[in-house]
Amino acid sequence: MAERPLDLAWMRVFEAVGRLGSLTAAAAELKLSQPAVSYAVRQLEGQIGAPLLARGHRGSALTPSGRLLFRAVQGAVTEIDGATREIRSLNRRPIVRLFTDYGFASLWMMPRVAAFRSVCPEAEVHIVASSAAEPGGAEGVDIAVLFGLRSDFPTSATQLYAERVVPVCSPAFAAVHRLGDDPRALTRTPLLHLDSTPHPRWFTWRDWLAATGVERSPGPGDLSLNTYGLVVQAAIADQGLALGWSGLVDGALADGSLVAVGPPLTRTESGYFMVEASARSATARILARFIAEEAGRAASVGSGPAA
Questions:
Q1: What is the pTM of this model?
Q2: In angstroms, rounded to a whole number, what is the distance separating the alpha carbons of residues 60 and 52?
Q3: What is the DSSP string of 3-14?
Q4: Mean pLDDT of the chain
Q5: DSSP three-state, residue 60
């Protein structure tokens, strides 16, 4: 809501004329025409029955009657404007802005919004998600949850999840392709890839295959998608194997939409970090504490990609 003053009609006109000593200056401040201001003052003089202004070539001076009324009006206008600002601030919902990537926003934060509302019902959370959420992208927001290395963030940043991935797919896909814990079985199935830069900050299938000693060339059934939410949706829809990040696929593993079908790969110095603005509101502090506590509830520590 714009910070506009409450309409006090003649009181505000007369207060501006008396304070500025000019009908023209008062008209400019109030965004009125000079004749309109002059008319309002003449109407007020008619109601009171006494001249309030001594008009001259260099402006308008208050008469004794005008000074008496001006003192009362100026105090009233100041007090009313102060009360109006206070009422509006009481009715304004506190806003907290969270900046993160699409994966964290859709798979981690959105399922927890209702829980945060129960903790802080008066707050309004604005989630700003970006497919290019970089470690340095925390400017202009209250809280940023970003993926990267420990060295990418200030020492005050809180690591929510270390990077831990495990191959996941739907139960039906695992049954059809007879997938178990043997990594070699994964070489015969389509893989779901997250489109990324030539040097991604997070694990890829190439990293996982190299770490497990499995050789595999890209297959004709492989599928690349540009956001991690789509990768997870494709895995649930029986389209292939995805790398599942602890923290982002925990809910799908818990409800059985996805199953883990291979050994995990972990990198403790990488993961999701929470960066808080230096000037934090009380609501931002509550949200930051909520995010940290929710992340701490996880049985295993993990993280996900910034897309």
A1: 0.67
A2: 10
A3: -PPP--THHHHH
A4: 85
A5: strand
